[in-house]
Specification:
Elements lengths: L2 H15 L1 H5 L10 H30 L6 H25 L7 H34 L1 H30 L2 H26 L5 H30 L2 H22 L1
Length: about 250
């Protein structure tokens, strides 16, 4: 295996494993304080919407059918966003409820849906990290740092609701780890199968679909879940903090 390929796998692994850092917040939350739920869900919503609006959607629009008219590119990007929203709605509709308490049921579903969305987000992210790092290790390191920064709150958005719903730290950590390791799955897929097949049009459609999923989860699941536990002012405050953290990570990446 070439040295550049090995470094690419290592960077993908380090970026993915950072979700565990976020998941460790449950060890601070010893008394299962509802304020932790508000902070984590609001913060995660800010992160996801920021990633969608400032990263996924602009990249999708800029990459899709570059020679086509702006109107056609806009419509295609919008169609893929709507497909993502529909996928998220179907996941929400058909996800089984595992807990009898309505509050726990809601939090458990939030955690699972967040995990599914983040896995779908991390796989193409892992592909992009691997391909970038294989060709330019310096750029790959910068990209990996930025990904690690926004994987931390993603870990929080999975672990906290799962922990509050199940009272099981191991399950909360495990689900966060699964979502993070999907970065490595993306790298493996890129190395063995997808590198020759992945083009800008495929990545553009994936970015828009993932943006639709993440925005739907944020607006339909995370923000309402946070609002149940606190005031609108508190939800907005931590939402804005999450949004700003992602803006800073984008600046670091660039």
């Amino acid at each position: 295996m070439p040295e550049s390929t090995l470094y690419a796998f290592i960077l993908s692994f380090l970026a993915g494993i950072s979700t565990i850092i976020g998941a460790f917040v449950i060890f601070i939350d010893k008394h299962k304080n509802n304020k932790i739920v508000t902070i984590s869900l609001s913060f995660a919503a800010g992160v996801m919407i920021c990633v969608s609006l400032t990263d996924l959607i602009p990249n999708s629009f800029s990459m899709i059918l570059k020679n086509a008219s702006i109107f056609l590119r806009f419509i295609l990007t919008l169609i893929f966003i709507v497909i993502g929203i529909i996928i998220s709605m179907l996941i929400d509709k058909y996800l089984p409820d595992n807990y009898s308490s309505s509050d726990n049921k809601g939090l458990y579903k939030i955690g699972i849906i967040s995990m599914v969305a983040i896995i779908l987000h991390n796989i193409p992210e892992g592909i992009a990290t691997f391909i970038t790092s294989s060709n330019n290790i310096k750029l790959g390191m910068t990209l990996s740092i930025a990904i690690a920064l926004h994987n931390i709150p993603e870990g929080i958005s999975i672990a906290v609701p799962i922990y509050h719903a199940t009272n099981n730290k191991f399950k909360a950590i495990t689900y966060s780890l699964i979502s993070g390791m999907s970065e490595v799955i993306g790298s493996i897929l890129a190395y063995f199968f997808l590198a020759p097949l992945i083009n800008e049009h495929v990545m553009a459609s994936l970015y828009a679909i993932i943006a639709g999923i993440m925005m739907h989860i944020s607006i339909y699941e995370l923000i309402p879940g946070a609002y149940k536990e606190s005031t609108l002012k508190s939800v907005l405050k931590y939402f804005i903090i999450g949004f700003m953290v992602m803006i800073i990570s984008h600046l670091l990446m660039n």
